[in-house]
Design a protein that fits this description.
This protein has about 450 residues and is an alpha+beta fold. Among the domains are: about 70 residues, no CATH class; about 110 residues, Immunoglobulins (Immunoglobulin-like, Sandwich); about 120 residues, Double Stranded RNA Binding Domain. It contains 13 helices and 19 strands. The chain has a 5-stranded mixed sheet with strand order 7-14-13-10-11, covered by helices on one side. A 5-stranded mixed sheet has the order 16-15-17-18-19, with helices on one face. Strand 4 and strand 5 form a beta hairpin. The chain starts with 9 loop residues before the first helix and ends with a helix.
Length: about 450
Amino acid sequence: MKASFFSIPVAVLCTSLVLLGCAGNKGVNKTPPPDWIGQRPLSSAYYIGIGSAPKTAVTEDALSNAKKRAAADLASEIAVKVESASLLENADNNGTVSERFTSSITSHTDERIAGFEVVDIWEDDTWIHVFYRLNKARHAQAKEARRKTAVESALVEFELGTTARSAGQVQQALNHFGAGVMALEEFWNEVNRAEINGQMVTVEPHLLRAMRNTILALQTEAALTSVELSAENNFKFPLGLNVTLDGAAARGVPLKYQYHNGTYMKRATEFTDDTGHIVALITEVSADRPDGAFSVEIDTDRLWKAANVDPVISDLVGSVSTSALRIPITVKMPTVFIAAGDGGAVPASLQEGVLTALRNVLRGEGFEVLNAPQMADYSLELNLRKDTRTPTGDLSQFHTVYVDGVIKVRNASGQTTQEVVLGRVKGVQLNPKSALNLALNKTAESIQRTVGKKISAALK
């Protein structure tokens, strides 16, 4: 007998309906993928961006990754063409500048693809696909608007830099000119022209030339054409240096100067004050040295840093050579008179060996030793003391004499400027006179080794 619909068990019927329902849903989800997944669309009116990402446990992560890849693909469609007369084409250090430009383009990605639309999003069991597009005409309009704004900013920076230069504010001028170039960083691949002072110019090279010309226009002058160190100025000389820009005082300009003191090259860098002035103190210079001149020039490396100019800008400007100013330094060695003091415990006749040693040392250092104190720049007075110890005890037959003292240095006015202490030395002999002579010989040797050099340094 043929079973009717109503005779089918309820459980079997429910099971069949469930199975039919499941099969129907599964079929709906398996819709074929759209054409844009298998074949990339071509369009003359739009830039295209397509991104795909595998599904993960978190669906939102897969969708986010697909969108990022679609945006990156869209950005890569917007080709950057380098024009032949652009900054990138003409840069001497093209590698560094191009690398910086590439980094800049990457940083401006969001602006480059602003205004895109989502055409479609499709997914299957394992992947999510995203389709973006960007209207080319609308994108070109937005880019041109940004470029015009950047050119206007660059022109404002140029005016500010020109004003700062007129006021002698060198660092501010360089900073503004450099900021003008950086304002156009996104468009270094294009030829950006504008009118400046009634003339059409390419903006970035014009700003770079302004920076270079500003440095080249700096003039360094010294208060004197030569410097003489002598006893009259205590062998110290404050040399005034002045920097001008277009005839006005140049502020904040780093000057690096150097001179050889006989032992090593002394170097320093100082920034000019509001009057464009610095003072270089020249001191401790030996008459015998390999280079007899004071040299000064503008420290361009320090100037770039002080002006807070981006390193890529200084690379674009290139090396700016400024001439060094050389000032001859002469050392007029002082004249000295050397004699024994009246208050010494050692007779003057016995001090001649020590005095001779002192005269020889100073002559070797370039001093002129005079026979009379009247014309001498310095007078050196030798005051020696002695301490004689007689032998004691039946077994001791030796006499011991200790000698020490001080050398007083006086200037031409008779004022004591320094006292050099002589270390204590000992002479031991059978005869007390021989012991004293031995101690005096050791004192002379000490002066030749060390003390004479100390006095020479003190006088210079």
